[in-house]
Amino acid sequence: MTTPPQSGREPDTHVPAEALMTRFEAPEPGAADATDTTGKGKKASGQLRDIWRRYKRNKLAVVGLVVVAFLMILAILQPWITPYDPMEQNLLNTRKPPSDGHWFGTDVLGRDMFSAIIYGVRLAMIVGWSVMFLSLIVGLALGAVAGFRGGALDSLIMRVTDIVLAFPALIGAILVVQIFGNGIWQVVIALAILSWPTAARLMRGSTLSLRESEYVEAARSIGASDTRIVTRHILPNAIAPTLIYSFSHIGVAVVAMASLAFLGIGVPPDIPEWGTMIANAVPSLNVEGESHMWVFPSLAIVVTTLAFAFVADGLRDSIDPKLR
Amino acid sequence: MAKFITRRLAHAVLVIIAATFLIYLGLFVLGDPFASSGEKTVPPEIQEALREKFGMNQPFFMQYLTYLQNMFTFDFGIDFEQRRDVGDMLAAAVPATARLAVIAILIEIVIGLTAGVIAAVSQYTFRDVFITIITTLGIGIPVFVIGIGLRAGLSGEWIFPAVPRSFTVETPWWQEIILPAFTLAILDAAFIARLMRGSMLEVLRADYVRTARAKGLSERKVIGKHAFRNSVIPVVTYTGVSLGVLLGGALITETIFEYQGLGFLLVRAIQQHNNPVIVPIVVFAVLTFVVLSTLVDILYAYLDPRIRLH
């Protein structure tokens, strides 16, 4: 969908399309090991190098990757780098503009905005990645089963995805949160429930197209079990579109959580979350000298979503040029 | 074609039935609105009387069937907070949301198509790169950040009414609608521009466009008549689905601008656990979404006969 300015414009003559077709290795080293029989690990590393070479061409994607890495480091180190306790209130020092002591100022309850935003990074990373892994695992499993088995099970799974996808995203998430109650993990579950159907459909599609291919038939003819065929032969080749979708969904999940929090749904109000911070700033939106209360959390969200979007674009162009 | 339409409609009905059931089940499981919570203590005998009054002492399936029956006769019951007729509340909110949705769609079509065509026609030039950057930002920046920014910067200035509304000043509807409509339109306009650019570039490479040029048509005619008409189909599809989403209520945007539509109503109802208001709005949102996606599918199959085979 995206067309980054320069990257991938020239046709990929270096890598024959079949090389990608026949043996795609997931970027995780673990996945490469799993399929490592007779010296194929070497080939996998060659392919990773190809992916990286194509990835590097997209400058925005590289910038995005740097920012994402930076955010991950912030998220991990948060307890040690926040100058104040992000939850600590100081009612004598509320709504103060940025100063030496409080770089991003203080909020309605006198909490340090800088610490709160760094805490928000941690929260966003935890939620974003958790949603990604949950929906990826469920989507891969159900999509592969639906595509490989076909029949009644396939119809059942596809009808379930139809029903879930009939809900406009935010409304669906709100309903699930209403059922499970407020809390970060409830939000994660709600967002995962809404995002696995797309992953499952993508996986089903690529599984279907591979099911009748010759190498799968070859595997079957030498007596490989269904489980083995799906996990060793189909999964590595079919995973790319689903993986890319799930990755691009991290940013979507972060925005969805912030949107829910902004509406006061799902995220407990005392947790420093970007959407909550912006909601708290709404009464002073037009007040002179208090704009720091919504500007900094907004910037944090924008930087995060743009960085993940750039990385996702870069991944799509480099892992699977056919998708463009 | 008739067979395709029948199958698609049956599918839509099935999805709607399942979704309404899930909504009702979900909100029923959600809990008892008459239970004591927080500061509110409700004596057991009053709880019993309230349940009796609202028919919540009956088995779940009976409640669901009664609800469906009432909904088909446009009887949505009475809300829990202020004892208003939910039908009246919806009748006030639906036109406001529909107006907002239609205006937002018009804005995004005009901006999106123009930007997409310009980008495609001047591929790789400064204009193209500039539009690409803007669309990337438009898609990447969350709607509620855009909305908050617009409200902070513009509301209360010039022709834009202040939020929250002043009770004494009467604002004409078109002034109230401009900012929320733009907030909603930005994301979709960026998407449409991208879709249009992509499909137009594809069409411009087609043989019949070369033929049109070869026989000496002006560039204006080649683009406007041959290329544009054939590349606009994906945009039609996207806009249809987008309208389906917007008609169900724009929760974030309406809340930011305190626009009295379905989305704002739903958000307040959720904060008050006001089930009689939540259920019909969510059902309505699902309904419009499914109906419009179905219509778009049928339209697409009509425009592109290859689809019908699947």
UniProtKB/TrEMBL annotation, chain B:
<comment type="similarity">
    <text>Belongs to the binding-protein-dependent transport system permease family.</text>
</comment>
<feature type="transmembrane region" description="Helical">
    <location>
        <begin position="12"/>
        <end position="31"/>
    </location>
</feature>
<keyword id="KW-1003">Cell membrane</keyword>
<keyword id="KW-0472">Membrane</keyword>
<protein>
    <submittedName>
        <fullName>ABC transporter permease</fullName>
    </submittedName>
</protein>
<dbReference type="Pfam" id="PF00528">
    <property type="entry name" value="BPD_transp_1"/>
</dbReference>
<feature type="transmembrane region" description="Helical">
    <location>
        <begin position="173"/>
        <end position="195"/>
    </location>
</feature>
<dbReference type="InterPro" id="IPR045621">
    <property type="entry name" value="BPD_transp_1_N"/>
</dbReference>
<dbReference type="Pfam" id="PF19300">
    <property type="entry name" value="BPD_transp_1_N"/>
</dbReference>
<keyword id="KW-1133">Transmembrane helix</keyword>
<keyword id="KW-0813">Transport</keyword>
<feature type="transmembrane region" description="Helical">
    <location>
        <begin position="277"/>
        <end position="303"/>
    </location>
</feature>
<feature type="transmembrane region" description="Helical">
    <location>
        <begin position="100"/>
        <end position="122"/>
    </location>
</feature>
<keyword id="KW-0812">Transmembrane</keyword>
<feature type="domain" description="ABC transmembrane type-1">
    <location>
        <begin position="94"/>
        <end position="300"/>
    </location>
</feature>
<feature type="transmembrane region" description="Helical">
    <location>
        <begin position="235"/>
        <end position="257"/>
    </location>
</feature>
<feature type="transmembrane region" description="Helical">
    <location>
        <begin position="129"/>
        <end position="153"/>
    </location>
</feature>
<dbReference type="InterPro" id="IPR000515">
    <property type="entry name" value="MetI-like"/>
</dbReference>
<dbReference type="InterPro" id="IPR035906">
    <property type="entry name" value="MetI-like_sf"/>
</dbReference>
